[in-house]
Amino acid sequence: MAFFKYKIRIFWLILLVIIIFFLIWQKVSPSGEWTCRQNFNVTSLSLVKDTLGGYSCLSNPTPTERVISGVSGPLVVLADPVYFSVFTPRSFSRVEVEITYRPHLSSSTPIVEAGFLADNKLWRYDLQPVYNLWLEKGLTDWQVLSMGSIHLFQRQAKFDSIFDFLDAWQNNGSSICSTPRCLAIYNFDLSGFPPALNQKQLNETSKSLVFPYTIRGANQFYFYLSGSTLNLSGELIDRNEGKDKDPIELSVYSGSRLVASTKIEDNGMEIEGSGDFSESKIFQMNKSGLNPGLYRLDFRASDDLMINNLSLNVQYFSALRKIWLENDEPIHLITDSSYLQVKTLSPAALQKLKFDEKFLNIEEIYKQYEIKGIETDNHEIDLAKGGLILENNGVFSLNKESMFNPDYPRLDRSFGTSAQFDYILADYESAKNESDNYLSSRLDFSTSSFYREKGRYNFIISVPGLKLNQADASYLEIKEIKMRFYGNSLWFKIRNWLNI
């Protein structure tokens, strides 16, 4: 009897050691791989399967009012977007994400995307397609050519292969289209291909532009430099509403190549969090030896920072997809997109906005408003004052003379299958059919540039246009999210450290 009890103790001791070793192994991840999963259909069986198949590393989704989460059913996403934080025991270089879901979507909510936070200043996520209703079901009367995950949809058959199309586009972009901007892009790498804009149509001038409105927070701009020297200047003002210091980084890119940058530290004497505006601080950026052409200007700054009297020696200057202006006087802008999303964080900014000949009453803070116009080249925006965050899939400019957009139209919920397009080019993996009408999609990310803090990445699932109490009752069911992280093994790191 005593010997039997001794064997029982030995058994439990060995089991305890195995469990401890397993937990340490998972925590340190010496193999260089780490798997975690969240099965939202929580049952006793799936709970055991979760424990054996990997930790549930995802936090509860936020904001909570945008989801319905039961004890034994899928996660139901009711509004866009939904955020998760993702715990990992250490940083990794790559992650595969597999999402199992049922889309109950419409032409007003045709796209599901997911990804990780890459830039916490510009609040930019690296997104990849999960599901696209247009590409799955909406282009059945178009001719489709495929080459791996690359698909070319032609309204009228003109090219016999994707290779022929890409060759014609790359070597003589104007030959593929009978009308300007006839090509729409979805998730396609444009490196090496000509921009949508014909630079020969831009008038080379020596004009300088002074932006007359106060720009707030992180923003991105396109500009066209006709000479070889960029002269940029402005004034910084710190609102001191936040409690942290507020440095700003200005970066100029030619394509994906950084050509100039400067960082301005917050050395002001004002008390952070006091709400007392700082004195204006003049900044400058001068860069010579540049080639004439298209450039992108990034302001990486917190919402506390504002820029006054921004001046550049360029004529063509457009804000990319978003602009946040702070002025007491009226503001006039134009945009090339037929829709506009509007939000404000301040009660003082509530007002009536005019979009072409339509009006939109902004009556609540933090609420996302939307207004649509007709399909024309340019749309006028008139505000009684600043304080509104304006967003769409195009650009914003001061007037027709300064506006330009080098981007191709994107296949999104606003463009749909508009008759202006002759071609749609997409890099897209079709969803895989699973049991019970579920679909699954697999995404692959390089995590080296992702923002990670306190052992967590930030993960987002986005269904643009999905709103609470939507008239067409669209929603997204998510059964499971599984993540497989990959990196160097502990043995590789030891060998690298020992240089053997």
In short:
The chain contains 5 helices and 33 strands. With about 500 residues, the chain is mainly beta.
CATH homology group of the domain at 31-131 and 436-491:
Galactose-binding lectin
- Percent of residues in beta strands: 35-45%
Q: Which overall shape is indicated by the principal axes computed on the Cα atoms?
A: globular
Number of helices: 5
Derived from helix and strand composition plus strand pairing, the structural class reads mainly beta
Instruction: Report mean pLDDT, rounded to a whole number.
Output: 83
Sequence stretches where pLDDT stays below 50 over 5 or more residues: 43-54
The major sheet is characterized as:
12 strands, antiparallel
Q: How helix-rich are the residues, as a percent range? A: 10-25%
The quaternary state of the protein chains shown equals: single chain
CATH structural architecture of the domain at 31-131 and 436-491: Sandwich
* Cα-based radius of gyration, to the nearest Å: 26 Å
Number of strands: 33
